[in-house]
């Protein structure tokens, strides 16, 4: 991406400069699920976990205190924290941008929510749908293969967490 300047993107895609960018972004997301299984937790979360004191806190790896399964507990703690901060209640509908492999959507469905989740990755969509089916939440969770910028204008978001308002403004400005 760094070697492609903005002028050459306009020259290649004069009407749709997002096409090349989108292609390059999807290529990074669509690596084999086997690759990610080799080093991620069972939930297949690749964002930062929340380490508790029982795992040695954030320095547990440095002190040798962590044991097998600690990463899973820390990732579950993070998912729980996110859902608690979102103040989800049974019956709520959640829009998740960035499905990953479905862990957060499954946790929200366990709380009684319905989830529409967007992903750019065919690989992640396939495995997320397998995991959702295995968990028994096919009727509560839909994974959509699409960029969030392609959502229909009529797809209204009724509530955005106050902490995300600056982010939504930023997204509008850069899209």
UniProtKB/TrEMBL annotation:
| Listed InterPro entries | CFA/CMAS, SAM-dependent_MTases_sf
Q: Which domain of life is it from?
A: Eukaryota
Please give the name of this protein.
Mycolic acid cyclopropane synthetase-domain-containing protein
Say which species the protein is native to.
Armillaria borealis
- List the taxonomic lineage: Eukaryota, Fungi, Dikarya, Basidiomycota, Agaricomycotina
């Amino acid at each position: 991406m760094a070697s492609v300047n903005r002028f050459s993107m306009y020259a290649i895609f004069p009407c749709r400069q997002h096409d090349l960018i989108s292609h390059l972004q999807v290529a990074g997301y669509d690596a084999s699920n086997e690759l990610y299984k080799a080093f991620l937790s069972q939930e297949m979360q690749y964002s930062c976990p929340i380490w508790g004191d029982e795992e040695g806190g954030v320095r547990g790896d440095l002190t040798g205190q962590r044991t097998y399964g600690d990463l899973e507990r820390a990732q579950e703690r993070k998912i729980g924290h996110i859902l608690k901060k979102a103040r989800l209640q049974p019956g709520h509908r959640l829009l998740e941008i960035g499905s990953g492999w479905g862990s957060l959507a499954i946790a929200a469905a366990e709380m009684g929510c319905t989830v529409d989740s967007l992903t750019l990755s065919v690989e992640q969509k396939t495995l997320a749908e397998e995991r959702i089916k295995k968990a028994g939440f096919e009727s509560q969770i839909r994974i959509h293969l699409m960029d969030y910028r392609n959502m229909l204008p009529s797809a209204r978001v009724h509530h955005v967490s106050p902490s995300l308002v600056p982010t939504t403004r930023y997204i509008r400005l850069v899209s």
